[in-house]
Amino acid sequence: MPNQFDLVVIGGGSAGVTAAMKAVQLGVKTALVERSGRYGGTCRYVGCVPSKTLLHTAQTLHTMRQHAAKLGLPASDPAVDFSAVIVTKMTSFDGLARRMATMRPVNFMQPGA
Ligand SMILES: Cc1cc2nc3c(=O)[nH]c(=O)nc-3n(C[C@H](O)[C@H](O)[C@H](O)COP(=O)(O)OP(=O)(O)OC[C@H]3O[C@@H](n4cnc5c(N)ncnc54)[C@H](O)[C@@H]3O)c2cc1C
After folding, report:
1. CA angle 30, 102, 10 (to 5 degrees)
2. Angstrom distance (rounded) from CA 57 to CA 48
3. Which terminus, N or C, of the chain has the lesser number of Cβ atoms within 10 Å?
4. Shortest-distance atom of ligand 1 to CA 42
5. pTM value?
6. For residue 54, what pLDDT is reported?
7. Considering Cα of 43, then 26, then 7, then 97, what sign does the dihedral take?
């Protein structure tokens, strides 16, 4: 039977993905069920990764405004392209998508599949 598993993990957020990867490493035939159709959960799409991207952008702007002159760099007051900031935030998890593509042989499934 092709759809028989030793372990079914429900929810493809950080916890579920980590559990599924560990199970596969241990040789357990594992299915990971995610209802949204995209894996990574809160951390990947709204939490850790996007929020840290915004914080890094803000920190960089602060450094340019407050410290560039002290470092011997021409004083500058960079404009903020908020649209570009948001695009960067929304694509900050693309690298994770590439990494997750290497996660086979976890069997990715959606409920009802
Ligand atoms: C703004 C923000 C910033 C954060 N920053 C950090 C940080 O810097 N460092 C850190 O460690 N943590 C951070 N966190 C917390 C982190 O995001 C969570 O701890 C983490 O996402 C929890 O992972 P999880 O897998 O338990 O749940 P989730 O990420 O919520 O994943 C649950 C998954 O299960 C799926 N699901 C739910 N019910 C079902 C069902 N019945 N069937 C199928 N699938 C289902 C959901 O669609 C979802 O994909 C942050 C959170 C927020 C909101």
Report:
1. 35
2. 14
3. N
4. 29
5. 0.80
6. 93
7. positive
Structure tokens at 20: 């599924």
CATH of domain 1-40+99-113: 3.50.50.60
**Pocket test residue of 48, 53, 55, 56 for ligand 1, highest count of atoms within 8 A of CB:** 48
Which of these, 109, 98, 113, 108, lies nearest to 44 by C-alpha position?
98
Q: How many residues does the chain have?
A: 113
pLDDT by residue for the chain (113 residues), tens only, comes to 567 899 999 999 989 988 988 898 898 999 989 998 888 899 888 888 899 999 999 999 999 888 888 888 886 678 899 999 988 888 877 766 666 666 655 676 667 66
Give me the half-sphere count of Cα atoms (radius 13 Å) on the Cβ side of residue 49.
19
